[in-house]
Every structure is written in C-alpha cells, then in structure tokens.
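Sample A.
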Amino acid sequence: MNTQKAVTKHNTAAEKTSMPSGEAFPLPLILDILKRQIAISGGFLAILEAEKEALIRMDVNSLISLTRKKEQELTKIAQLDHSLQEVARRILAWDENSRQRIIKLAELIPFMTREQTLTVKKYRDQLASLREKISSNNLINKSFASATLGYINDAISLICGEITATPLYSSRSLRTKSSSGPALMSREV
C-alpha cells in the first residue's frame, strides 16, 4: 500500500508542479483550453472550405450563413485566448509586466515538468498549424471573392451600365472603348 501511495503522490506531483506563489500549476486548465482551441480552429477551417464552395457556386444565402458561423467561432476563439491569458497571468503573478502584454506559452515552460512541456508544445504546434491554414484559406477566399465581385461588376457594366451612360460605338460605327468601361473586354479586335 505504501508503494501505491508513493506512485500516486509522484503522479500528482508530476501533474501539478508548484508555482512561485505556492499554488499548483494549472496544467489541466491550460490543456483543456488548448484542446478546445484546436477543436474550434478545426471547425473554423471546415467553415472556410464550405465558404470556398459557396463562393464557387455564388450561393449568397450560404455565404451569409457561413459569415455568421465564422463570427461565432471567432468570438469563441477570442474568449479562449483571453482565458488562456488569464491563466498565464495567474502563473506569472509575480511579474508585474505580465498584465500589460501578451504572454506566450513558451514563458510558462520553466514552471512545467518535461512531460508537461512536451504535451503543451505538441498542442501549441497543432494550433499554430491550424491557424496558419486558416490564415491561408481566408486569404484565398478573400482573393476569390474580390475577383468574383470584379467580374460581376464588369458583367453588370457590360449589360446595363455602359448602354445608358456612354455609347459603345461612335457615329461612324467604329467601336470605341470608354475610359470607364469594363476591364473584361479585350482592347484588340
């Protein structure tokens, strides 16, 4: 029985390293926040993929719905980021400058055991990879949406804008291009 108590005591000590203030290191809370951020970021990546498909199909209703979902997920991510900062500030309570700046996970490593450090680094790397993919996909969607809007604007100008504003042909029936004409049409004939 003494061996079992010693193993339990060792496991508990490994899970909760003491902080300078004497409190137990809140690793389970940090890991929970990181796991939730990874799950939400994975879901956000799926929303961006759906958004790309909706952009390709020009499905406005889906785009509106996906925009709302993105806003909700971004709010959740921001709340989790805030929670993680609060936990980090508790750990670094002795550092008065920690209140005025963003604390990085790497700053918490001195308070962790080797196993804790490896686990946190693994989650941090997964989260960084997901956020990089999110940034890349968001940039692609933004670029695609901008190009699509440009084409739609050109098409509208071709269909109705230029007909009423400026004639496309001169009195000699030679084609002329107005300075505000769409970029979609070639200038060569």
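Sample B, a different protein:
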Amino acid sequence: MDELVDRLDEEGNYTGQTILKSDAHRKGIFHPTVHIWFYTNQGEVLMQRRGECKDTYPLLWDVSVAGHIGAGEDIYDAALREVKEEIGLTILKEDLTKIGVFKSIQEHSENLIDNEFHHTFLCELKAPFGALKKQNSEVEALTMIPLIQFAEEVWGLANTARYVPHSTEYYKTIIKSIKGRL
C-alpha cells in the first residue's frame, strides 16, 4: 500500500516535505521507520519471518515489528500501530524504550533504494506467544529465539544468511540493550 511519508535529509532531519513511499524507495530519498524488538524476561527474542511476497529480503528473519512512519505521524503512535497490525498486540507508549536511531542505506536495485532512519525500540513481551496474531500479508511466521543463539548467529556471523543484513553495529546495539534488561 502506498502512503505519504516525511522526507528526511541525510542526517535524519525532517525537511517539511512529504513524498509517496514508493517514490522515496525508487529515488533513494531518506524517510523514517520504526523497529520494535520484543524480548522476554527469560532471554528470548521475538523474530518475524518476512512474507514471501515482500520486495526486499523475502522469507528472511528480521526485527519483531517494523514499518514506515506516515507523514506527520508521531513516532510512538507509528510504533503502537505497527505492533497492533503486525502481531495483533496492544501496547502502551510507556512499554517502549527507545534505544536509538539508525541510518540505513540499502540499494536493492536501480529502482529500489531503501534510505531510512530506523527509530528503534525495545519492549518486553508480557503476553504469551500464542496470543500473537501475525499479519498474513506481511509476516510469514513468528518465532522466539534465545538471545544467545541470536547473538551467535548475527554477531558471531555464524548464520547471517538467515537474517536481514542490518549492520553489525545495529545488531550489537540490539543484543547489548536486551542483555542489559535481563
């Protein structure tokens, strides 16, 4: 679905302009997204397997919940909306802990360039795994993975072909931030 997103400059500052998401991706124009990483107090991380029909990284494991921030939309409102849409969970703004904003440049093809700033949050998963309801159009599967296994596979580079290739710095920040809350 195409939607308007805010146009950002190369440092992640809002320009006051909006653009269609499809045009932002076609032209490589920076725009904001949200990433929400869910973890349990038992040291597990909720992973989302991207849908088979996704334009980028189909069927690879990725962040628990992610999505674009609509033009003029509050970052926290976007995060809450995406969580409800993708995994059927209602959370509160207070449940989110922002751990950073990450610049991401991914040139997939001549006509698909993802230049994004990921506003990244942690959220403790307090609902049982069975209560989650995946968005079938976006999400192929959900699973829980031990943090130690996740760290070994993305940080230790043991199984990187299984995951969306975010930067090592990004994955290290996620792992260290979750570990710090356990």
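Observation for Sample B: DSSP finds four helices and nine strands in the chain.
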